[in-house]
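Could you show me just one protein sequence together with its fold in token form as a worked example?
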Amino acid sequence: MDRNELITIGVIVAPHGVRGDLRIMPQTDFPDRFLTMDACYIDGKEYHITSARYHKQFILATFKEVPDRNAAELMARKEIQVPRDQLVELPEGRYYIFDIIGLTVEDTKGHVLGTVSDVLQPGANDVYVVKQEGQPDLLLPVLEHVILDIDVEAVRLLPIRRNGFNRAAET
């Protein structure tokens, strides 16, 4: 992934009030970032946040470039993005979902099991959905005793190979 690529961290839901405030649904595990951000990108154009606050599950933000309700109405359903280098740094061993999707999954002998196509978040732990053409999906729970190594730079993931994994069609 390009280091300058823009990453979505929220979606503008609708205008709020008559002064041009925007109601934003955060798409990040770090919604507090909106309270201290200076700039972001919308449709590839830089916008400057002058104020932001929580309102229920939303962030209400005022942008320098959105002076009134009429301008705010044109912003509905647009994505709030930041450059990759402005993402919150994750602790060692934690990864952004968009970094996991697309990784090649190999067993410990180097045999390709497929490619991560989705990350499910059912509750206790994430589950990687691995697709291989002509095969049922392979579901890998993200647990220390199942995932041996994740190497985002080498674009691969190594699960511990035991007596096989449950495939979605077989469970």
